[in-house]
Every structure is written in structure tokens, then in C-alpha cells.
Amino acid sequence: MALGLLLVFVAAGFMGCHTPKPVREEALQPMAQSYRGVLPCADCAGIDTSLFLAENGTFILQHHYQTDRPGNRVFATYGKWARTADKLVLTDVQGDKRYFRPLENGLEMLDRDGAPIVSSNAYRLTATKAPLPTTPMAMRGLYRYMADAAVFSDCFTGVTYPVVNNIVMEKRYLQVRKSSEDAVLLTFSAHFAVVPSMEEGMEVKSLVPSSASFQMKAQNHCNE
């Protein structure tokens, strides 16, 4: 009898030692913030990298390659971010994913599988305050112009933004649309900027067309 009780207590103690502990999520606070750092580069001095996270679940990522070679050295992309218990997952408009994890006062870049990079080099971005980049990015979405205001609903993120006045684009919309309230499918290059809104004293994140070059189609949906 005593042996039986002893085995019960031992079993209970064993089970107690292996009871899983609750997983604690380390929130990235605040969610809308920017990071910057110089990441290692195989054939250049480094990649000056800036990451901007927005509260609506979107991001902007800019890479500036530090090299003397001719050609464009600055590139930017945007997309959607999501948070797991220990990782930040970025998915750009091409469907490519990048992974980071919180580390001290910033983020550490992970490899393509979301695992730590084994290297003597630092793959870190530090939290900082910086203006949004003006590097043009290719965008595709639904565009409307009415009542002297234009809006763009991005096909990939589903987020709608005001568009800074562009007379050429507005005139073309009036020619292409099928009816007065229809949207058209717009492909163009633009960058984000925080500009004064129509409400006095307020600012709003808007899209600034980068050039007069764009494609507009009489189609009010994103499907191919």
C-alpha cells in the first residue's frame, strides 16, 4: 500500500515537472514604428536598410546598396506584416517573405526559413524615427476620382489611400471610366507621404505619383 502511494506521488511530481508553461507573446510596441541599420552585403560595403511598420498591417522596406557601381542603388517594396509569438513576418507584393525577431531595441533579420543567421556579422535594425522614403514603388489597385478628391485601393493589401492631385491621371480617369462612380484599374509608380488633410490641422498618409507614366484600364476589380 505504501509503495502504491509512493508511486502515485512520484508520478504526480513527474507530470507536474512536464506541465507546459503558457507561451508568452512579446508584442512589438508600439506597432507603428521605423527601424534602420546597415546589413551585410556580399558584393558591396553594406545595405542601408529602413523598415517602416504601420498600424494597419502594412510595411515599407527600403534597401540602399552602398556601392560605386553605376545604376540604381536604391530599391523599395511594400506589403503586409504579421506577428507570431516570436517573429515578425513581412510578405511583399511578389509574395516573397522576410523574417525578423525582436532583439533589444530593434529587430534581428532571420534567414529565408525564419531561423537565426549563423554569422559573425550583425543583421540588426535599430528602432529610430525617420520620414517615409520617397523611392518609387510599382503599385496596382482601383482608382476613383470624384468631388475633387482621388483615392486608391491597393489590390495586394486592400488598404485605401488618398492620392495627391495629379491632373493627367484625373483627366484620364474621366475618359476611361464606364460610369460616374466606377473605379478603374490603375498601375503606376508612387511613394507614400504624410501630407496635410482637408481637415485643418490634420495629416494623412497619402500616395504621391512618381511620374506621368501609368496604365489605366476600365475594370473595377483586381482580378486578372
Summary keywords:
elongated; 8-stranded antiparallel β-barrel; 45% strand; 5-stranded antiparallel beta sheet; 224 residues; Lipocalin; 2 helices; 12% helix; OB fold (Dihydrolipoamide Acetyltransferase, E2P); mainly beta; 13 strands
Please report the number of helical segments.
Answer: 2
Query: CA-to-CA gap between the ends?
Result: 75 Å
Rg to the nearest angstrom?
24 Å
Oligomer class: single chain
**Class of the largest domain, according to the CATH hierarchy?**
Mainly Beta
Spatial strand sequence of the major β-sheet:
1-2-3-4-5-6-7-8
- Beta-strand content: over 45%
Low confidence ranges: 1-28
Keywords: Lipoprotein
Organism: Symbiopectobacterium purcellii
Protein name: Envelope stress response activation lipoprotein NlpE
InterPro entries: Cu-R_lipoprotein_NlpE (IPR007298), NlpE_C (IPR033450), NlpE_C_sf (IPR038139), NlpE_N_sf (IPR043176)
Task: Write up what this structure looks like.
Helix content is 12%, strand content 45%. Strand 9 (137-146) and strand 10 (149-154) form a beta hairpin. It is elongated, with a radius of gyration of 24 Å. It folds into 2 domains: 33-128, Lipocalin; 137-217, OB fold (Dihydrolipoamide Acetyltransferase, E2P). Residues 1-28 have low confidence and may be disordered. By secondary structure, the protein is mainly beta. 21% of the residues are buried. The strands form 2 sheets. An 8-stranded antiparallel beta barrel has the order 1-2-3-4-5-6-7-8. The protein has a 5-stranded antiparallel β-sheet with strand order 11-10-9-12-13.
